[in-house]
Amino acid sequence: MTTVNREDIGRDPSDAHDPPPAPPPAPSRFRPRLPGRGGEIALLPYRVTLGAFVLTFWCVDIVSPALPDIGTSLRLSDTTTGLVVSAFFTGRLVTNLPAALLVDRVGARVVAAAGGFAVASGSVLAAIAASTFPLLLARGLQGIGVALVVSAALLSLLRVRPGEGAALTAFNVAAGIGSALGLATGGFLTNQFGWRAVFWLCGLLGAALLAGALSNRPARARAPVGRTAGTSPMDRDTGEAMGPGVTSRSPLPVHLDWRAMAIPLVANLLVYANYAIFVVAVPLRAAGHFDSSAQTIGTVLVILNFAHLGGAIPAGRFVRRYGAARTIPISLGLVSLATLVAPVM
Q1: Which residue intervals make up region (Disordered) (predicted)?
Q2: Which residues contact 72 (CB under 8 A, 6 or more apart)?
């Protein structure tokens, strides 16, 4: 009696002795890992991002009123005193791109915490610096920390509030508040306790940034497919990449139109060049020519900062209504006019 295996029914007799199919290849041990679950990335909550901007820009501008006293205490020339600011922005410059890339790999929470630790450490080292070189190194470390925090907070904000102009308006308002606090407290502390007190306060603010990043439950967003961090915000419903200079709206890898990005990049460069001159030249000029105290310098800078803060909300509305292409020439024209008028006032 012949028995028939049920698995052989309907099979070609020539295939009866074929070897079994090869098992699928084992998955690679080295898999790209994203923080979170299911391809999600950990972002900072909305309120935490705003608080991070306030504390960070508090640390950024708090040093400006103290620059003349730093130069006098360490016997620095005006040029070397300017390097105290240059070292800080150099640290930010070299860290901005790596910080943005790290957000999608380890999460905004980790990046912001690392930035808070760097700000606190650099501030303490600056407070105890006895000569120029250690101070410049400490300022560079502060700049690295600020770049990490700002990148983590800004990328979180752009994904939580992706509407045109809304995220940048919130950023400008929070940063303006932080700058005002920094300028006011920087002048007061320098006048009352000396310039080293400024950096001790920055150390406390850095510790607050570290604690805030670690103590809050992170928000989560779907990781964009094939997109580098920071290229453009995502549509809240479709997950598609959006923003000026982006030539594709599909979830596939997007390509930046660098011609479209050139004007905003140049405009941003001009704005920061003007800002860097402003935060160095005004304090040194006021101290050297008018014999102004640190508190007076801080008050003057706070008034100018309030003008910037007051223009942030109308500027955001102008961008949403008329577009960035019209806003940039108008804003640069106002800056140029004010710069030309200031020396004769």
Answers
A1: 1-34, 222-246
A2: none
Among 292, 80, 301, 123, smallest CA distance to 191 is for 292
Instruction: Name the one residue in this structure whose structure tokens are 């320098």.
Output: 190
Cβ partners under 8 Å of residue 66, min gap 6:
186, 187, 189, 190, 195, 198, 294
CB 319 within 8 A of CB 327: yes
Tokens at 98, concatenated = 């790596």
Helix (H, G, I), strand (E, B), or coil: what is residue 159?
helix
177, 137 in Cβ contact below 8 A? Answer: no
Q: Which residues contact 194 (CB under 8 A, 6 or more apart)?
A: 69, 73
Q: 234: helix, coil or strand?
A: strand
Phi, psi values for residue 38, rounded to 5°: 60, 40
User: What is the spatial distance between Cα 217 and Cα 55, in angstroms, rounded to a whole number?
Assistant: 19
Q: Is 194 left (phi over 0), alpha (psi -120 to 50) or beta?
A: left
String of b and e for 268-283 (b: at least 16 CB within 10 Å)?
Answer: eeeeeeeeeeebbebb
Cα–Cα dist 297/11, whole Å: 91
Q: Which residue has the higher pLDDT, 158 or 226?
A: 158
Question: What pLDDT shows up at residue 34?
Answer: 40
- Give alpha helix (H) positions in 107-131: 108-127
8-state DSSP, 37: S
**Model pLDDT for residues 279-326, shown as the tens digit of each residue:** 888 888 888 888 888 888 888 888 877 777 777 778 777 877 887 777
Angle between helices 78-106 and 108-127 (to 10 degrees): 160
For tokens 């910080």, the residue is 99
Mean pLDDT of the chain: 77
The structure tokens listed for 180 are 């005002």
pLDDT at 242: 42
Average pLDDT score over residue span 139-148: 96
